[in-house]
């Protein structure tokens, strides 16, 4: 890749375009830009504006951060959007006046945000969710009684998408507030499966506070009241709680409980093909990823178990980007502990390729890159560049 930033962006755009079998004219038409503009950007002769880069990224179906040679600009846009997100939450129960689209359009907007969350497209989420949350709060405030459950469910999903970007960007207090308003909205949705989903998401508050015992208690309480797994959606909701409980039990030092929850998750995954249920990925592949996460939570005692999982299996490409990149970030920790530093760096680069913003904002990716840099016995330009990109130096 060229060291010239403008040419680097152009090369990334050209690579993504060719991967999608688009001509420059195809991309120009999809992005509503001229053919000359696309050609100049790809040659490195012209720097795209933020609006142009967003339009090109949308046409290619990727987050703008994938097209940039540095994550700093993308991260800056994410953090710049946090005050607007905070303001949207502050008025969750006293929304201002404004337009409200029809329910079909709201469904589409919420589904789009969910897709961005699963693909770790945090720039788009950060910039779109404040307005969407305000509109949905107005919709719920104005909704007739028979329409409130669906609007409330859409609002919970939108809160979850906003929470993902707040949490990953390190705004943990804001994330905790989003979880609270999710819990406030759930009773209006009248959906027990949605309540289980919110309990799954709430666990990140306990992870952030290192309150692993309390998090385990909260998850087990949620499992106790979750609907019986009589169908795929119910089995997925309960199974997701079990696989989340396994990881937090491991961090709490409760390996016996973790093994029990993993066994339950595997059993439910046997009834549930891999897919997205209530906005959460669940199925045999998701359980396998949580098995590796649990092994890593054991520290040195789980290293070999984590390496064995990775030797036999890798996440399929059709899994959500955030979950796939998380697998490689956690694997890199285990590989570092095992002294396999080259493999660890390769895992980090794979994570970055899958979901750059997720990787850049992940504390463990930063920690592992810093460790690898300190342990390096020779100048390694690629490792140094990665460590600088992820904020480890």
Task: Give a quick precis of the structure.
The chain is an all-alpha fold and 393 residues long.
What's the number of helices?
Answer: 21
Largest sheet: 2 strands, antiparallel
What best-fitting shape do the alpha-carbon axes yield? globular
| Rg over C-alpha atoms, rounded to the nearest angstrom | 22 Å
Layout of SSEs?
Layout: H1 5-19, H2 24-31, H3 35-43, H4 50-60, H5 72-80, H6 82-90, H7 103-118, H8 122-142, H9 148-168, H10 172-189, H11 192-209, H12 212-225, H13 232-251, H14 255-269, E1 275-277, E2 280-282, H15 284-297, H16 303-312, H17 321-337, H18 341-354, H19 356-361, H20 363-375, H21 381-390
Antiparallel strand pairs: 1-2
Helix pairs in contact: 1-3, 2-3, 2-4, 5-8, 6-8, 7-8, 7-9, 8-9, 9-10, 9-11, 10-11, 11-12, 11-13, 12-13, 13-14, 13-15, 14-15, 15-16, 15-17, 16-17, 17-18, 17-20, 18-20, 20-21
Can you offer a commentary on this structure?
By secondary structure, the protein is mainly α. The chain has 4 domains: 1-62, 434 Repressor (Amino-terminal Domain) (Orthogonal Bundle), CATH 1.10.260; 75-189, no CATH class; 191-297; 311-393. 73% of the residues lie in helices and 2% in strands. The protein has 21 helices and 2 strands. The chain has helices at 5-19, 24-31, 35-43, 50-60, 72-80, 82-90, 103-118, 122-142, 148-168, 172-189, 192-209, 212-225, 232-251, 255-269, 284-297, 303-312, 321-337, 341-354, 356-361, 363-375, 381-390, and strands spanning 275-277, 280-282. It has a two-stranded antiparallel sheet with strand order 1-2.
């Amino acid at each position: 890749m060229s060291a010239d930033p403008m040419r680097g962006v152009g090369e990334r755009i050209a690579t993504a375009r060719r991967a999608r079998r688009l001509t420059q004219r195809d991309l120009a038409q999809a992005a509503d830009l001229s053919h000359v503009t696309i050609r100049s950007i790809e040659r490195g002769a012209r720097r795209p504006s933020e609006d142009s880069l967003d339009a090109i990224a949308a046409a290619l179906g990727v987050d703008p951060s994938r097209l940039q040679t540095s994550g700093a600009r993308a991260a800056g846009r994410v953090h710049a959007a946090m005050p607007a997100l905070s303001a949207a939450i502050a008025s969750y129960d006293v929304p201002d006046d404004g337009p409200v689209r029809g329910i079909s359009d709201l469904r589409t907007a919420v589904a789009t945000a969910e897709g961005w969350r699963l693909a770790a497209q945090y720039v788009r989420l950060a910039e779109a969710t404040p307005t969407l949350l305000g509109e949905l709060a107005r919709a719920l405030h104005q909704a007739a009684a028979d329409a409130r459950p669906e609007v409330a469910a859409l609002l919970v999903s939108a809160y979850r998408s906003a929470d993902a970007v707040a949490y990953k960007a390190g705004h943990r207090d804001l994330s905790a507030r989003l979880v609270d308003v999710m819990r406030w909205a759930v009773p209006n949705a009248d959906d027990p499966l949605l309540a289980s989903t919110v309990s799954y998401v709430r666990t990140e508050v306990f992870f952030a506070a290192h309150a692993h015992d309390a998090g385990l208690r909260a998850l087990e309480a949620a499992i106790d009241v979750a609907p019986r797994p009589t169908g795929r959606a119910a089995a997925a909701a309960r199974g997701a709680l079990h696989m989340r409980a396994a990881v937090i039990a491991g961090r709490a030092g409760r390996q016996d409980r973790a093994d029990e929850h993993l066994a339950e998750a595997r059993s439910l995954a046997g009834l549930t093909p891999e897919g997205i249920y209530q906005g959460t990925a669940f199925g045999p592949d998701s359980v396998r990823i949580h098995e590796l996460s649990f092994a890593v939570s054991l520290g040195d005692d789980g290293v070999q178990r984590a390496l064995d999982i990775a030797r036999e299996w890798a996440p399929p490409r059709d899994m959500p980007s955030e979950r796939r990149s998380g697998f490689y970030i956690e694997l890199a920790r285990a590989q570092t502990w095992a002294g396999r530093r080259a493999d660890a760096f390769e895992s980090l680069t794979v994570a970055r390729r899958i979901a750059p913003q997720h990787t850049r904002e992940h504390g463990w990716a930063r920690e592992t890159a810093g460790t690898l840099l300190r342990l390096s016995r020779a100048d390694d330009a690629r490792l140094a560049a990665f460590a600088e990109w992820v904020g480890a130096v």
